[in-house]
Amino acid sequence: MDKASINTIYNKLRKEIGEPKTELNYRNPFTFLVSVVLSAQATDKSVNSATKDLFKVVKSPKDMIELGEKKLKKYIKTIGLYNSKAKNIIKLSKILIDKYNNRIPKNFDSLIALPGVGNKTASVYQNEILNIPRIAVDTHVFRVSNRLGLVKTKNPDATQKELESIIPKKWLKSAHHLLILHGRYTCKSQNPLCGKCSIIKLCNYKKKNEKN
Length: 212
Ligand code: SF4
Prior knowledge:
Layout (H helix, E strand, L loop, with lengths): L2 H15 L11 H10 L5 H14 L3 H16 L5 H19 L7 H5 L6 H11 L9 H10 L7 H11 L2 H17 L27
Helix pairs in contact: 1-10, 2-7, 3-4, 4-5, 8-10
Iron/sulfur cluster (SF4) binds next to α8.
């Protein structure tokens, strides 16, 4: 897709959605990282509902270690995969204390070396907290960018690489947020609302659902 079309897509999405923000609630970089780890295969809403009470008592890696795995599980038991997520969060907190003096590393490779932190989590963290423009690819970004024809990819890592190389710099910071929100509310997985879609003319998806 050419640059002019990409700019038009993002201009239209920005006009419709506004300046996008993360829907995860957090108090500081550590609580944001914990929220993103918890959000893997879970909705932001379910994470916010669990962290509402958790973040009243936990604000740092030290607090998390003091709370311990057993009590952490009680706070997050409504979130999918909470057992393994709790284990990872405790391990991650210990590493932040032992290796990084209670702070979170900024470097991408150091971030993805933390338990429970993959490409997507590290990219979301860098984008939101460090203001480093990264495109984190979740299921919505993967689906929408392939339907639109921004990319033609088979997995999230390839999608991230391609999107980061073709999307003009000025959109990089908000690019994934806009695609996520478009995917969540309009370009839905099962029943895309193509009839109401502001970027339908630029979309290459062959199975458009224009009745909706
Ligand atoms: S036209 Fe349909 S498939 Fe294309 S981006 Fe819009 S909602 Fe998605």
